[in-house]
UniProtKB/TrEMBL annotation:
This is Lipoprotein. It comes from Halovivax asiaticus JCM 14624.
Amino acid sequence: MKRRPFVATAGVFGTAAGAGCLSTITGDDGGPSFEIQDVQVYQPDDRTVFVAPTVTKLDSGSGHLHLRAELLFVNTYDHSHEQQFEVRAKVDEYMYALPFRWESPFLDGKTYDARAKIVEGGDAGWVEANETVSAAPETDDGNRSESD
């Protein structure tokens, strides 16, 4: 076999296989696009925070959604959490909760901001939460039943 045609053929197959692997790694599966509409923060106690972005699907079909949330603390280091979700074709808008949990009462007396973004091929912009959170646990028991 002549070397030049073999190398050219191997290069074509390698490029095609590499592009397929790259689309698998980056999640570029031709699925729908997403947009964050709003970000809310829930702090049920001094060890737990949920950053909850409301995400709208811009196209039809099912796909993958990769979210990143950050808690930005005043006078201490920040925390981040990434999570991937499967989005069904029937869902157009959904609120996803990204949890932050500590073993000890880490949040006591701390103030922080929260933000979230969709992690895609490029660096999408951050969507900030509506308010700065002072680390007092939620006191609204309206969603609890009387038997608790």
